[in-house]
Amino acid sequence: MKVAIVGLGYIGLPTAVTIANAGIPVYGYDINEKLVSEVKKGRTYIKEEGFVEALKNAISTEMLKVGTEMKNSDYYLIAVNTSLNKENNKINLQHLKSACASVGAVLKKGDVIIVESTVTPGTTENILIPIIEEKSGLKCCEDFYIAYCPERVLPGNLMYELIHNDRIVGGTDEKSGEKVREFYLHYVKGKIHVTDVKTAELAKLMENTYRAVNIALANELALIVEKVGGNVYKAIEMANSHPRVNIHLPGPGVGGYCLTKDPWFLIEDYPESKIIRDSLEINSYMPEHVVEIVENALREKGKEIKGSNIAVLGLAYKGNVSDPRESPGYEVYLLLLNKGARVVIHDPYVDEYMGYVPERSIEDAVKDADAVVITTEHNVYGNIDWNALKELMAENPVIVDTKNIINGRELNVFKLGVRE
Ligand SMILES: NC(=O)c1ccc[n+]([C@@H]2O[C@H](COP(=O)([O-])OP(=O)(O)OC[C@H]3O[C@@H](n4cnc5c(N)ncnc54)[C@H](O)[C@@H]3O)[C@@H](O)[C@H]2O)c1
To answer: Which residue's C-alpha comes closest to atom 36 of ligand 1?
Structure first.
């Protein structure tokens, strides 16, 4: 049994390593030459616990080989990027279409294809299968088998969840579903739910839409509390003591690769959407709102945002991970720059984003700062001695904590959704 993984990014490479270390020979294919040559040396930009060791093991045992040329295999697992075209909020399928064409070019009778990239409903049957059939000259469900199987790992806990999460297998027919279920049994310990393709495509998008809409609800609750007074965190805690209520937490916006695009994929052919569309708008307004809080807080201290020194703490889109994609911290940074502030971003995990290399020393980042804005819940920000840090800042500094991680009234911290 040979497995090819197409696309060696955040999802593809850890999947390739997991399967290789389960004793199945894997060939990893990616069009990015630099990435492939780094992987060959056991190097990666993915910072997940235990991942580098697992990668080095897979490479040194030769269970994982990688290259920039597509090779024939028995199973093809496609995990290339499917991004959002921000001009029209529609899916960009360019990479997935070309990955399917590459697979089609080497496909033989009896092969099995698994699509893990996130797609809009109907994509597998209406777009991907026709490309594969045309390139291979083979017929789906007769000559080859294909299923859509969304990935739902949590960055930060990726190596565990790849094995232990439940999986959805959306087979194009019964035989495809069964073959792919058997494939996952080689390394997945979670439950494997077999269904049809469309249901699997919809389920993936619904999961992330549910989360984005609920974050938007928490964000709106924070905005309401800022107007009517109170503490949104205390109120949410009380509300969540109800047995059937589980309100999320507000924040400076929604980042990451999935929550920012998947809800748009779901409503791509449903422009009538109200709840989902409004939620996305509330979430994307939050960085702007954070800047308003900073501006008002500085004014209270008799300072203007223009010309102020500001440190943004957190470039990763969430706590204790190195992934900065669609980072609210970066968005806040850009908005502050636009207002004429002098801004520096600190992050202990992220190496670089959009050409920006974050400051590694928190002391250097906050030195002489008129304002500090916490945008990511890295543990280090909760554990640090804020009284000592405040000594390094400018006179009368402002701290805006959008993640509710600093306690201590004496620090005079401004928070989202708190006006007591
Ligand atoms: N990152 C996550 O946490 C996550 C979670 C669930 C689902 N997903 C979905 O999984 C898919 C992959 O996401 P990712 O985060 O791994 O993306 P990524 O951008 O990190 O990696 C994609 C890789 O595919 C490669 N690639 C692009 N076109 C190719 C082609 N034609 N042939 C071979 N390789 C090609 C790229 O060079 C890149 O290395 C996306 O659809 C995403 O929505 C991601």
So the answer is: 7
CB distance 202 to 121 below 8 Å: yes
What is the rounded distance in angstroms from the CA atom of residue 267 to the CA atom of residue 120? 9
The residue out of 134, 161, 190 marking a domain boundary is: 190
**Residue of 179, 204, 403, 415 with catalytic role:** 204
Q: Is 98 in the pocket of ligand 1 (CB under 6 A)?
A: yes
Tally of domains in the chain? 2
State the average pLDDT over residues 267-282: 97
Would you say 341 and 376 are in contact if contact means Cβ atoms under 8 Å apart? Answer: no
Residue tagged active-site, from 140, 179, 258, 318: 258
Q: How many A from CA of 390 to the centre of ligand 1?
A: 41
148 CA distance to ligand 1 centroid (A)? 15
**What are the E-state strand segments in 15-62?**
26-29
**51-77: average pLDDT:** 97
Q: Is 100 designated active site? A: no
Tell me if residue 21 falls in helix, strand or coil: helix
Name the pairing type of β-strands 112-115 and 145-148. Answer: parallel
Question: What pLDDT was estimated at residue 382?
Answer: 93
pTM for the whole thing? 0.94
30 and 110: one domain? yes
Half-sphere exposure of 341 (CA within 13 A, CB side): 27
368 close to 309: Cβ distance less than 8 angstroms: yes
Q: Is the pLDDT of residue 244 over 90?
A: yes
258 belongs to the catalytic site: yes
Q: Is the pLDDT of residue 231 over 70?
A: yes
Mutate to test the pocket of ligand 1, among 8, 10, 33, 322 (most ligand atoms within 8 A of CB): 10
In a domain, 301, yes or no: yes
CB 203 within 8 Å of CB 168: yes
Q: What is the pLDDT of residues 278-337, one digit of tens each?
A: 999 999 999 999 999 999 999 999 999 999 999 999 999 999 999 999 999 999 999 999
55 plus 182 within the same structural domain: yes
Is the pLDDT assigned to residue 211 strictly greater than 90? Answer: yes
Report the pLDDT value the prediction gives residue 409, as an integer from 0 to 100.
67
